[in-house]
Amino acid sequence: MKIAKSVTNSTMAALGLLSTLLPVSQIAHAQGDLADSFVAPTVFQAAGPNAASIQGTVDAFRAALGDPNNGNNPGPLASGRREINWDGGDPNITDTTAPVTPFDVFLNTRGLHLTTPGLGLSQAPPSGGTQGGLAVLFNNPTYGTIFTTFSPSRLFTPVGSNVTDGSFFIPGTTGASPATVSGFGAVFTDVDQPDGGKPHKAGTRIVYFDRDGNRIFSSFVPASPGDASLSFFGIKFNDARIASFQITAGETPGPNDDRRHDIVMMDDFIYGEPQPLQ
């Protein structure tokens, strides 16, 4: 069981347990070189030791994006949201998929194109399944116990990198029609260091971009010290202005998760219904 590594870390965990929804002007500008035309979105963030710690915030984010969950229906649709939980809605799916980039499994059905500068992106349970899950994928037995899922049974991760890049398209167009969304959020497991630690690397964060590639928002993901914790971070604008995002999830998986290495996996991706690029 890990312990809090700093007062800041403990504070962030406490805030997460309260399932915070905060104004973000100070958060955003503290994170760097955002454009002068910065528009503050609504931020949804939470972290804690189990799924119940973030459930209320995830549900509030879903409600803000709107109903229904549009599943695999072709777009563009006027309202609703899309979700990817890596399990096909079936917790009995425990296969480990080979690393691949681009990862276009959900490009046509959900309108999301994913890449990594590493070897590829994989879906895997923490352990078990026919291929042994994350523990075998990364040749590290500890990975079978230090991560948990928000929606069983698989997690999502880059291999050979800690970076995942995503861009949006109209579902049903096989990537032919670029799109923007009003909001995007993701669930993470085992975020221990809210800013990567000092003097270590930049921690788990999401950077959001507009149609021209300009950075419109950036923030670290809240942390909750201890194995198998869960975190959520998402933002929502009043209009569809997010064209792409970049997630840096802790450090490149492989080493043990310890005071020097914060290894983080991803679970559910939730985002607004992709709208035609204007």
Helices and strands, in order, run as HEHEHEHEEHHEEEEEEEEEE
Classify the helix fraction into a percent range.
10-25%
Tally of domains: 1
How do the strands of the widest beta sheet line up side by side? 1-2-12-9-14-3
Structural class: alpha+beta
In angstroms, what separates the terminal alpha carbons?
Answer: 49 Å
Largest sheet: 6 strands, antiparallel
Bin the strand percentage: 25-35%
Description:
The structure is a single chain. The termini are far apart. Helix content is about 15%, strand content about 25%. It is built from 6 helices and 15 strands. The longest helix has 15 residues, at about 50-65. The strands form 4 sheets. The protein has a 6-stranded antiparallel sheet. Strands 4-7-13-10-11 form a 5-stranded antiparallel sheet. The protein is an alpha+beta fold. It has one domain (about 5-70, about 80-275).
